[in-house]
Amino acid sequence: MKKRFVSLFFIVSAMAFLSAESEGERQFKANNPSGAAVLLESEIQRGEISADTYNFLGLAYFQLGEYAKSIDAFERGMKSSYADRKKLCFNEGNVAYASGDYEKAENCFSLAVAVSPQMYSAVLNRANARLMQKKYGSALDDYKLYVASVPDDPQRDSIIRLISYLEEQLVFEEQEKVRLAEEQKRIAEENERMQAEIARREAEQAAAEAARKAEEEERRRKLLEEVANSLQQTDTTNMTAGAEEVLDYEYESELD
């Protein structure tokens, strides 16, 4: 029984501490982000952390235009056992979106939706982040989910028009994909025919060159044969007696 009482005491103490507003939080609510950031960092160093400490710190840095510090504050808060993670993910996504890091924004909003699937504001913001990355298919899915889940949203008509534009865009992209595929096929076929024609001409030129060389070789061969034959013709008065000696002989005909 005593153990149960102690556990209950710590829960009550923690809840009482979390509900207390720190000076850093008061400065933030008083629209003093610079002073709030300094005080909130000090409170974190002292371990005086509430459910909103990191959230206010991240928002204070965001108001100061220090986006990197803002994102760092939200991510530090994700490690805190007190933090409202879906709120931190959502706000971090907004800062990432504002800084132009749409991929990170999409990831943050996805984490917020994973923590709380009914957080449709994160679904809408994720749709916007996907749209900025030209992920039209997944953006369309998110917009449709949002208008189906939040039918009374004041922006409903604008979102429905955007859905219509995205559907047209996806049809256009599909048609363009088919056209490009056909164009690539046509170019590939043209290149194939061109290469075949080049190969044919090169083969003809090679054959003609081979024939010319063969004709030239045949002409040279015949010329060499003619020269060799002329050298082998023997005078009737000269005979060879060996490799280096020539026998000369003369005779007189006894015939009248």
Automatic annotation (TrEMBL):
TPR repeats lie at residues 51-84, 86-119. Residues 1-20 form the signal peptide. Residues 229-240 have a biased composition (Polar residues). Residues 202-225 have a biased composition (Basic and acidic residues). Pfam families: TPR_16, TPR_2. The keyword Repeat applies. It comes from the Bacteria. Residues 245-256 have a biased composition (Acidic residues). Gene3D superfamilies: Tetratricopeptide repeat domain. Residues 202-256 are annotated as: Disordered. Keywords: Repeat, Signal, TPR repeat. This is Tetratricopeptide repeat-containing protein. It comes from Treponema porcinum.
